[in-house]
Structures are given as C-alpha cells and as structure tokens.
Amino acid sequence: MGYLIPEVLLAGGALLALLAVAMLPNAKNLGSWIVLLAMLAAGVDAASMWGVTAKLIMSDTMAIDKYSILVTEFVLLAGASSLLLAWNADRFGAELPPLMAISVLGMMTLGTAANLMVVFVGIELLSLPLYILAASTRTRAGGEAALKYLLLGAFSSGILLFGMALLYGATSSLTFVVYPAITAANTWLLWSGLGLVLVGIAFKLAIVPFHMWVPDVYEGSPTPVTHLMAFGTKVGAAIILLRLLAFGFYGQDGSWGTLIGYLAVLTMIVGNLLAVPQLNLKRLLGYSGIGHAGFLLVGIATHSVDGANAMMFYLLPYGLAAMAVFGVLRLIEGQGDEVTLSDLRGMAYRRPWLAAVLIVGMLSFAGIPLTGGFVGKFFLLQAALFASQPGLAVGIVVGTLVGLFAYLRPLQMLFQRTEVSAKVQHLRWSVAGAVVLGVAVVGTIGIGVYPAPLVHIVSQSANFYWLTGG
Amino acid sequence: MQGLTEILLLPLFGAVTIGAFKSLAPKRYAGIWASVLLVASFVLAVLADVHLAELAAGHRVISGTLFNWATGFGPKIAWNIYLDPLSGIWLLVITGVGALIHIYSNGYMHDDPDRGRFFGYLNFFIFSMLLLVLAGNLLVLLIGWGLVGLASYLLIGFWYQRPSAVQAAKKAFVMNTIGDVAILIGLALLYFRFHTVTYAGLFSTFAHATPNTAYFEWTAVLLFIGAMAKSAQFPLNGWLVDAMEGPTPVSALIHAATMVTAGVYLMARLYPLLRLAPDVAYAIAAIGAFTAIYAASSAFFQQDIKKVLAYSTLSQLGYMFLALGVGAYTAGVFHFMTHAFFKACLFLAAGSVIHALGGEQDLNQMGGLYKKMPWTTASFLAATLAISGIPPFAGFYSKEAILGQVFNSGHGLLWIVGVITAGMTSFYMFRLFLLTFFGAPRNKKLYDHAHEAPAVMTVPVVILGILAVIGGFFGSWLNGWLAPVFRMYPGASHAALEAGPVFGTVITVGLAVLAFFIAYWLYVLKRTAAKAGISTWPGKWMLAAYGVDTGWRNVAILPIQVVGTWFRDRIDQGILAAVVGVANGIWLWAEDLRPVQSGYVRRYGLSIMVGLGVILAYCLTRV
C-alpha cells in the first residue's frame, strides 16, 4: 500500500490542519504551513516513486504509473501555488488550507483512477471543497458564484453518474481499463453512456457549450481559489478525460476523436473570442481558460501518442502562466477581489518588475516564442498535423490569433503613461507572492528556451498503454 | 571531453566577468584577466591536441555533447562538440595568436578609457570563434558563425563616437548577414534531405552519393556564399577594408588571422560536399584567384598603412580559396596557418607604428622609422619577406604548395594568375615596408616623437615575427597531421602537399625579387612619394578598388531603397489597414456573442442540455 503515501500524507495534513486551526485559532498561518509541508512531503514522496513499475492496485481500481505520478506533481504545484497566493490573508477564513488540500486530493485521485467509481469520487472530492471555497469571502458575488457552481455542478454530476450507470450496464464492469477487451461491440447503451460521461467531464473542463459557469464563478471567487480552479481543476479533468478515452475507448477512435475535435475547435475559438471584450481580468482569464481547455482537447482528439504527449506537456506551461498572471492579480487586488483593465494603468513605469512578470505570463498564454506556451502550442500543432487533421491545426491557429488580441489588450494598459491607477500605487509585495511569481517566470522561460527535459519526462509518462496488455 | 568544454567556456567566463565588473575593478585588470584566461585556454588547447595526436591515426576525433538542445517529438538536435586534426589547427591558432594579441592589446589600448568593454568583446569573440570551430554539427557552427559576426560588428564599431566606424560596422554586419542567410538555406536543404546536421551523419551519406547533381551544386553554392561573405571574397569584399576602422589588434585578430578564415574552415570541413559539386569547386578556385589578383592590384596605391594590409589579407584569402577549389586542402590550411603568423605580425607591427606616431595611419607622414623602432622593423621585415614568398620564410612554402598543386591539377590559367599575384604581392608589400621604415622622415614632428613600443607590445610582435620566419618548416608535419582528415572520405586526390615544377618556383621567386628591386628603386632611390600617381587613370581606379562599392550601391542599395519606400507607402499601409479591419471584425463578433452570457443559471443549464442532446445524437448515429 506504499503507493498511496502521497494521498495519505495530504489527507493527514488536511485533517491535522483542521484540528490545528480549531484548537489554536490565533496562530497565524498555522494551517497553511501544515498543508504546505504536507504537500511538499507528498511531492517528494511521489517523485521518489518515479522508477516504479506500473501496476494496478486496490482490486484494479487504481493505476500507479508515471502518468499518475506526473499528475500528482502538477496538481501539487497548483495546490501549493494557490496556498501561497492566499498566504497571510485572514479574510479568506482559516478553513481555506484544509479545503484546498482536500480538493487537491481529489485531483490526485483522478490521476490514479482506473475505475469509474474512483473517477466519480475524485471529481466530487475535487468539487465539493471548491463550492465552499468559492464563497469564502462572503461577498455577494462570492455567494452567487458558489451557488451557480453548486447548482450546475450537481446537474452535471447527475449526468456523469447516469452515464457511468449506462456504461456499467453495457459492459458489466466499472473498471474502464478492461473496456478495450469488451467494447468491440458497439451498442447504443455503450455510446449513450460514453456521451453522458463526456458531458459530465466536459463540464469540469469547461468545454463549450458547457462552459457558461466559468466566468461568473471565476469572477466571484477569491483569486487564490480561482487560480486553483484554473490550474488544478483543468489538470484533473483533462488527464482523466485523456486516460478514459485514449485508453478505455481506444477502439472507437474514428468516432469520438471526431467529436472531440469539433468540440476542441468550437471551444478554442469561442473561448478566446469571448475573452476579447472583457474588462474584468478574472472574467478574461476565465474565458482564456476555456480557450486553453480547447487547446488541451486537441491533444486528445488526435488520438495518438504524439497528441497525448503534447497535451500533457501543455498543462505545465499553461499552469505556470496562470501562476504568473494570478500572482500579479493577487498583488494588485490587495484587500479587494476585483481587478479591471484600468487598474493596470501605468504599471510598466511604476512597477516595472511586476509588469514584466505579467507580460511573460500573458505572452506565454498567447503562445509567443521563448515562452513555454509557444512550445506547448507548437507540439499540439505538430500532433494535429502528424495525425493528418488539418482542421484542428487551423483551429489552433485561429484560436491563437484571436487569443493574442485578448492577451495584448491588458498589456497595452501597462504602458499608459497618463495616469497610474490607485491599486498599482498602493501595491505591496509579499514574500509568498514573490516565490510564486519567481517559480512561474523561471519555469515559463525555462521551458520556452530549453524544453528538452520536460519533453523527456512527459514522453515517459504519457505512455500509459502498458495497460493494454493486462 | 579532454578539456574542450573548459577551452570553450573560459573566454565566455572572461567576457561575462569583465562585463559585470568592469566598472568596479581598476581598468588595467580587465586586460590582464582576459589575457590570463586566454593563455589558460591556449594551454588546454595544446593539451587537447597532444591527446588527439596520441590516438590512432584513423580515429583522431574527440567528440561529445554539451547538452541536448531540441529533442522534441521529432528529430534531435544537440550541441555537439567535435575536435579533429583540422579543427585542432584552428584551435591552436585562435587561442595561441589570440593570446599574443590579447597581451599586445594591454599596451595598445593602455590609454583608452573604455578598455574594459574592449577586452570583454575580445574574449566574447574568442568564445564565438571557438564555438564555430569546435561545433560538431552545422547548426552549432552557424550559431558560432552568427556570434563572430556580432563580435566583429561590436569591435569594428568599438569607437562608436566616430560616424565612419559605425558605418563600417553596419556594412560588415549587413554583408555578413547575406552569407548567414545563404548558409541557413543550405543547412535547411541538407536537413530536409538527410534529417541530420551533424558532420558524422552528413559525411557518411555523402560518401556514397552521386556527384554533380543539381541538389549538391545548389547546396554547395549556398554554403560557399556564406564562406564568401565571411572571408570577404569578391564581390562581397567591400566590408573588410572598411573594417579597418576598428582598433588595430582587432584588425589583426579578427580581420586577418581568425574570423575571416572561417570561410576557409567551412569549405575545408565540407570537402566531401565539394567533391559532389565539381562545378562549384571550380568556381571557388576561380573566385579565389580573381580575388587574389584584384585585391593585390587594389593595394598598389593605398595611402593608409592598414588598408594596404587589408587588401593583402583579401588577396591571401583568395589564395586559400584557390587551393580549396582545386582540391589542395592541406595546402590551403597550411597557408591559413602561415598567414595567421605573418599577417598578425604585420598588423601588430603596424599597430606599434600607429601607436608611436600618435594615431597617424597615412603613409605620407611616415618614413625612416627603422632607426627609432628596430624591433618592430625587424619583425615587419620578416613578415614582409614571408608574405612575398621569399625562401626560406613561411609564406614561400605555403604559397609554393598552393601554386604547385594548381599547376599539377592542370588549371593553367589560374596558375598564371597566382604567379603574377605573387609578384604583385612582393611589390606592394615592399612599397609599404620601405615607405614606412626607410627613406627620409616625411613628417619631422611625428618622427621626433616616435619611440619603440613598450615590451608588452614588442614581445608578441617579435614572437609572431619568429613564427613568420620558421612557420614554413611545419609543412611536412602538417601534412602528416591532416592526412587522416582528408583521407577519411573519397575524392581528395590532391589533398596532401605536393611539389610543383621547379621552373614554377623559379619564376615565382624571380618575380618577387624583381618586384622588390622595383620597389626599392622607386621608393628608396627615386624617393617617390606615397601619393604619386593616385590622380592618374589606373591609380584612381585601383585606389577605389575598381568601384565595387559604387557598384553595390547602384545594383543593390538604391533599388532596395526604392522598393522599400514603395512598400512602406503602399503595401505596408494596406497590411496595416487589413490588420485593423480583422481586429475590428473580431471585436464585433465577440460583442455579438456576449448577450448569450446572460447570468441566469437556467440559461446555463439549457446550454448544457442542448450540448448534451447534440452529443447524444452524434453518439447514437455511431452505433
């Protein structure tokens, strides 16, 4: 059972933090420290398992392989950076660290899932804390965000669960890693189940037309929570979709591949397009997140190892860029929860370093060379072309072009010399924020200039077809 | 990798540390630090070459990978390092001559307030040049190639307060960029066909390719254009003479001994490709011979001590390309080596003269300096005898090797051009020597203030002078050393050194001696002034190098300006309007979509249901 030590560490950390904040309510940052240390310990332990032989555990319901380990590292990075962004901010409430830990635990569970029940548990474990966290500032917008998220989340969970039931009916197994042996028969039951499950996961990943909740929820939630949704949830939903489709249903590639391809193109274009006119930066990032979900789908739609590699690769530059941008937002917003475009005015002159970080993050989102985002988009484009799917390639290009427009508009504000916004003037650096921004910038440029090590790691982990034999 | 990484990184380390600390430390430390690092690099280079010599003759290659650069999901590209006897020679010359020139610069730049920057650039240049030479694939070579161009640009424009220096730097950079682009295209052609850019990979496929196909001819032409630009072969020669605007040690290091021979290195390195492109090989020989005689004649009437040397560099580079073109690879490399010795010596000695005369470079202000500067005069004389091909000085052996093989391989016309050029070389070099050091002082005031350079400058000059005397005796050693390189692949029938006909040697040396007497008669006995004849018809043309610069202006610069203006006014505005139009379109489109986001949860739920319905319908059609 040594394989689940990272999960156990994090769960233990969450419980300990809960106890600690209850018993020592005046100790500043105590819960955050406990959870952060638990996350670091989990990360180190997961990394030490890198050489493990891939295997199924817990009656074949969970898979431990390099894929699950890499996912664990990604979501722990998301969790730790969210935690650091919420550092020293009492207004989010003392229960924020343990709730974040539980949400991250859900994402880690998705990484290991080999069984539909585990998928469902993972998704709910991920979502339930987020419903609470969305309302943790107790503002009107926060309440609205949490309620919308909860209602629509419950709706989509119902669809997901129903789909799983149909799949069970069609295959008489919940363990999807054995599906390739069964799904040779194309029954309507199987296809209905797959369609419903797709919708359930697509909701979490924010695929058009299941994306409507994203901007409202992103806008209303506190910035660290928004960051966790943007980075962590995206990773969790994307990787389970990839494992489920590319492994469990790899026999029907011509069919669901096309469907995912259409969704990818629609999502890339609509998401980036709607990001263009936004004035609230968190709404803008919400739409940008939708657009990026579309890019991630491209990797799945190609139904090839290249595509799987490219999607896994894309997650990290995307997450690092999100860290940079949300980190800057967190510093600008101070005691508030809202940052609009006009709050960025004059930042390049007043806070040149911070402005530089924002520029790096935005350019990586937009996919400009020398940033990780460019390399990620390059690999996706390559995968689409290698898979002879020019439509996807065109979608990437159009989506990127429109996205560029959206990302350059905030940057334009940085260079407005006429006036400096009040928020920029009263901005104060924090150590935790600086750590997040430092990691984000070094990582983004590092991957952009020298992607080889990450490519190596990803190409080892995205090769999860070891399951095919067993 | 036998210290190759250290050899490469020491100068880079120097450039970085000097750049970082130049305003903190006392000024003289920059030069000392840069020189120390380079001497260390030279020692390591000697050790690496010794190690190379200890390997079995057929396996004299040290290779390694610094790191994988772009592994991607496609073909791999790494920073390969590669040392074989050919790059070993370049390695020794770059670090050895480079170290001497660094030491010399400590004296020459002594009074310059900005010498920290100078030494930083100089070390950066050495790093780039070593990268070019030690590269194990064409892509890394191209990176080094680009970086030496940058270093050359920075150093030519070192005195950026002078508009002429800035102009010259710009000109050098633009002309070199033509070459860089050509190499890049050639590289792409090779990569698309063979999916590799490493020497080992390319040469193994070249070994059994069919010669004389259009593909190889074009590839070779493109790579040769790159070599032409870097080595200033006609018609891309204009920048080298202007590059004399840089400090004199720079002219010695970059524009005589090392960087301008990068083209020679590239062509020698790619000799398996030249075998496959015989037409291009002949063109290389012809362009080399033409450049040799063209530059030699242009040197006849120059008034500036450094410009004479610049034209002579062009001319000698022409000899090297002539050698490569006829397949005499070892002879070409041999001439590169001796040329590095005597030309660096000439430039540094000229630098001492300029230094002694307080910055004066005009031959009309010199004369009689041998009494004041005995060491410099002796070294200059040794190097002049070497470049003129008088036995037994270094240049005699290497030039004889080239001309002999040109004759043996049956290129009669090219041989005649080479022999005549040898006589012309002797004339203009002795003209320069006699005008500078003999005769009556033409400017009494400058002459009275002149003095021998300090030891830090004189010693490197004398060492190079000695090398210019004895460098020719390395010939047979070099022949054995390079034999494994050029034997590894077929098609190098004339690669080794060969003896030419005796009558050829007699004619060449006879012409050189005759030219010396003519120069002596004209400039010592008849005391002809340096500027005599420059307003007459041939002199005017030769002084302006036959108007190649004007030609470039009319053929390339003016038309491009016209086209550029037209594009700016018409096309550019149109593109701008189109971009604005697209942006406006996207904006309107986005605004149109916005009302869908109403904020009502029931609408959001409806959207999910519609999506679900479509997906289910799609799925059920698949059954």
Q: Strands across the major sheet of chain B, in which order?
A: 1-2
Strand content of chain A: under 5%
Mean pLDDT of chain A: 89
Number-wise, the strands of chain A total 2
Strand content of chain B: under 5%
Q: Largest interface, counted with CB-CB under 8 A?
A: A-B, 47 and 34 residues
Characterize the largest beta sheet of chain A: strand count, sense, and whether it forms a barrel. Answer: 2 strands, antiparallel
The secondary structure category of chain A is: mainly alpha
User: Cα-atom Rg of chain A, whole angstroms?
Assistant: 21 Å
Please describe what this structure looks like.
The complex is a heterodimer of chains A (470) and B (623). Chain A is 74% helix and 1% strand. Chain A has 470 residues and is an all-alpha fold. Chain A has a domain at 252-470. Chain A has a two-stranded antiparallel sheet. Chain B has 2 domains: 161-550, no CATH class; 551-621, no CATH class. Chain B has 25 helices and 2 strands.
Could you provide a short overview of the structure?
With 470 residues, chain A is mainly α. Chain A is built from 20 helices and two strands.
Provide key terms for this protein.
heterodimer, A: 470 residues, mainly alpha, two-stranded antiparallel sheet, 20 helices, B: two-stranded antiparallel ribbon, 2 strands
Please give the structural blueprint:
The complex is a heterodimer of chains A (470) and B (623).
Chain A (H helix, E strand, L loop, with lengths): L4 H19 L6 H19 L6 E3 L4 E3 L1 H20 L10 H17 L3 H19 L5 H32 L7 H4 L5 H18 L7 H8 L2 H26 L4 H23 L5 H21 L3 H29 L13 H4 L1 H15 L5 H15 L3 H25 L7 H4 L5 H19 L2 H10 L9
Antiparallel strand pairs in A: 1-2
Helix pairs in contact in A: 1-2, 1-4, 2-3, 2-4, 3-4, 3-10, 3-13, 3-20, 4-5, 4-10, 5-6, 5-10, 6-8, 6-9, 8-10, 9-12, 10-12, 10-13, 11-12, 11-17, 12-13, 12-16, 12-17, 13-15, 13-16, 13-19, 13-20, 15-17, 15-19, 16-17, 16-19
Chain B lengths: L3 H18 L5 H28 L7 E9 L6 E7 L1 H24 L6 H20 L3 H19 L6 H32 L4 H8 L7 H17 L7 H5 L5 H10 L4 H8 L1 H6 L1 H21 L6 H21 L3 H28 L17 H15 L5 H15 L3 H26 L6 H6 L5 H16 L4 H13 L14 H24 L11 H7 L4 H46 L7 H21 L2
